[in-house]
Amino acid sequence: MGNVDRDFALISPNISLVDVPLPRRAKLGILASGSGSNYGAIAAAIEAGELNADIPVLICNKPRAKVLERAAKFGTKTQLLNHREFDSREALDEAILACFREHGVEWVIMAGWMRIVTDVLLKGYENRILNIHPSILPSFKGIRAIEQALAAQVKVTGCSVHFASLEVDSGEIVMQAAVPIAPNDTAETLHARIQAQEHRIFPTAIALAIRDSEQ
Ligand code: GRF
C-alpha cells in the first residue's frame, strides 16, 4: 500500500473515554457467543478505571465459547443459556431478561451475540441495548459482513456501534470507525484490523450512549 498507513482508521465522533466520564457506575449485562475480545476490551477499560461501570453478569449461549475463559480471567460471573434448550427466540429472551433483572443490569451490551433479539428483550431494555457490527452501517448488514465488503470491492469498511432494534443491524448509530481495505486483504487480515477498532470504539460508545441517555 505504498506510504499508506494500514492501521489508519477514522473514528466518528472523534472522542475517547476520557472525554465521556460517567458520574455513576453503570451496570452492564454482556451477551456474547464467541471469542469475547470485545467483552475483553470493555472489561479492560473498566479494570483500568477508564469506564465507570460494572459487569454483574455475562450471558453466553455456547458452552465452549472462548469468552467464558476470558470472563473467568476478569472474574466476571457467567451464565450459560444455550439457545438449543429453548423452544423459541422469545423463550430465550425471557430467560435473558430474568437473569439481567436479577443482577440489576441497566444496559445490555451485545458483544458478538450471534442471535436475533426479539421484542421481549427490546421492550425489557428499551433504548438500552447496544450492538457492535463489523461494517459501516447501513452497508453490509447481517452475517459475513466482512466477506460482503470484500466481495463488493469497496475500498473502505469498518465497524459500527448502534442501538439494537427489531430489524437486524438497523438501530440508531452511536459511533463508527472506518478502516481502509488493502488490495491483498483476506477476511482474516481485514477482520483483525476491524477488531482493533471495535475494541477502541466500543467502550467509548457505551459511555457516550449512557451519558446521552442521562442528559
Ligand atoms: C465482532 O467482530 C463483532 O463485530 C461481531 O462479532 C465479532 C465478535 O468478536 N458482531 P469477539 O467475540 O468480541 O471477539
Helix and strand topology:
Elements: E1 10-12, E2 26-32, H1 37-47, E3 53-60, H2 67-74, E4 78-80, H3 89-102, E5 107-110, H4 119-124, E6 129-133, H5 145-152, E7 156-163, E8 173-180, H6 187-213
Parallel strand pairs: 2-3, 2-5, 3-4, 5-6
Antiparallel strand pairs: 1-8, 6-7, 7-8
Helix pairs in contact: 1-2, 1-6
5-O-phosphono-beta-D-ribofuranosylamine binds near residues 134 and 198.
Explain what you see:
- It is a single chain.
- This protein has 215 residues and is an alpha/beta fold.
- The protein has an eight-stranded mixed β-sheet, with helices on both faces.
- The mean pLDDT is 95.
- It is built from six helices and eight strands.
- Helix 4 links the parallel strand 5 and strand 6.
- It has helices spanning 37-47, 67-74, 89-102, 119-124, 145-152, 187-213; strands spanning 10-12, 26-32, 53-60, 78-80, 107-110, 129-133, 156-163, 173-180.
- The protein starts with 9 loop residues before the first strand and ends with a helix.
- Helix 1 (37-47) runs parallel beside helix 2 and helix 1 (37-47) packs across helix 6 (187-213).
- The protein has a single domain (4-213), classed as Formyl transferase, N-terminal domain (Rossmann fold).
- The protein is globular and about 50 Å long.
- Bound molecules: 5-O-phosphono-beta-D-ribofuranosylamine.
- 5-O-phosphono-beta-D-ribofuranosylamine is lined by residues 32, 34-38, 111-112, 132-134, 159, 195, 198.
